Amino acid sequence: MASYRKRDGSWEYRISYKTPDGKYKQKSKRGFRTKKEAELAAAEAERLLNSTTIFDENISLYDYFDKWAKIYKKPHVSIGTWKNYDQTLKLIEREFGQTKIRAITPSIYQQFLNNLGKRYYQGTIHKVHHRIRRAVKQAVVEKLIDTNFTDLAKINAERQHKPIEDKFLEENEYLSLLTTLKQNCPQTDYVQLYLLSVTGMRIGESLGLTWNDIDFKNGLININKTWNVYTNAEFAPTKNKQSMRTIPLDNTTAKILLQFKTEEWTVNPYNRLFIRVNHPWLNRLIKKLTKTNIHVHSLRHTYASYLISRQIDLLTISNLLGHKDLTVTLQTYAHQLEQQKEKDFKEIKKLFG
Question: Transmembrane ranges (predicted)?
Fold first, then answer.
């Protein structure tokens, strides 16, 4: 039975259900414009939960992953994250077709990862493996298979990591970019890029900002929703609950936003700061301005890297970025942290030198 409530201007549904191993759990999803939309989505979620076809012992890995993802993941992840599950499903289809899940052995699965290793980066394969591993773990719980054939799999990609220069700007490049952006404010695209550069927010979060989210008096920005860039017609939930956060608004950025609101901002029904959804254009603009191969999301990484270089507490950085936990921050910025460790070692040697 589903329950419904209205939060922050949008509707949410919540469903209680019992898992195959006898545990009681709840599923919820928010971001619906009307109660009717929430009811329709809840009905589909309940239909999937009540489906018995997922327990068919002759089911293929492709069909199982598809049903598992729709039941256990789709109600809880953003549209952007869900597209990653869709992509994983396509990789499964290309490699396994309709091969039964019971017929897949550890060596067959390992060969699948080896094949991916010829075409994708290590990090990409790791994420694909993680998704499949979670699904297969559930298949063991449901007694479709006896053991998890992904358990001892190893990932060894020919291309270990994306070039670091494609992810970050050097400090001098970053500061130069900020100067250039400020000189071109209050033009809308430049204001948006500047805001992304000095806050580390995701582009979808910037598109979801309304003027009510900007607290000029206390110097704060409240991130509590995103904009659905796929429909371009509605707000959407943040990536995770940790992504709902408050971040600092400095005086310079506040002045830029106030000037933008007065001189350039376009009035719109939702009172959003930025209404144009054109990610490719912003990517082209940022490449042109920096004369590098970075993209808009690189501004988020550069912001975090800059804070690390200024020895801002890592937990604070993690909270500012809206990471799910500190582990994500440690993994994402391992390269910068290694550089900082070298500096710290030198300082420690001086202390006792």
Answer: none
